[in-house]
Amino acid sequence: MILLTGTQRDRLLANDRQRDVDHIPVVKFFNPFGAGVWLATELDEGGDIMFGLADIGCPELGSWSLEELRLIRLPFGMGIERDLLFTGDFPISVWAETARETGSIRAAEHALYRAGAAFARTSADTESRGS
Asked: From what superkingdom does this record's organism come (predicted)?
């Protein structure tokens, strides 16, 4: 699997040039067999060092090597994958705080999108009452 599309790479590089911004994650990588989720917000000029939220047992903000992710070999000849449906939607600080509170990025994802869906339903109800 291609871990980064050209568009994702361009966005990550652009984010790296904008320091002190609470970026929305551009891409999510995951281990399809167990622990390991990475949300990337930035990619350095060299094209290897990424920054974002990593969770290999404990979610934390930091940097990692894209090449090292590429080289991970899992059972059945598989490797780390890119979540094709991931949209980010929230700044990395929200992801980090929620992951710390819930214990993992995967639990944070469920909590954030459940809260977002509840907010959307409440907003729709409020709008229809106002009509």
From this structure: Bacteria
Q: Which helix (H) or strand (E) holds 128?
A: helix 105-130
Lowest mean pLDDT: which of 23-27, 50-54, 107-111, 112-116?
112-116
- Sequence-distant (6+) residues with CB within 8 A of 44 are 16, 50, 51
Question: Which of 83, 79, 89 lies closest to 112 in space, CA to CA?
Answer: 89
DSSP characters over 100-120: HHHSSHHHHHHHHHHHHHHHH
Burial class (CB in 10 A: 0-12, 13-18, 19+), 61: middle
Tokens 């819930």 -> residue: 102
> Token pair for residue 100?
């710390």
What is the enclosing helix (H) or strand (E) of 40? strand 37-43
Q: State pTM to two decimals.
A: 0.88
Query: Which of 51, 63, 55, 108 lies closest to 80 in space, CA to CA?
Result: 55
Backbone angles phi, psi at 92, to 5 degrees: -60, -30
Gap between the Cα atoms of 77 and 67, Å rounded = 17
pLDDT at 115: 83
d(CA 45, CA 13): 7
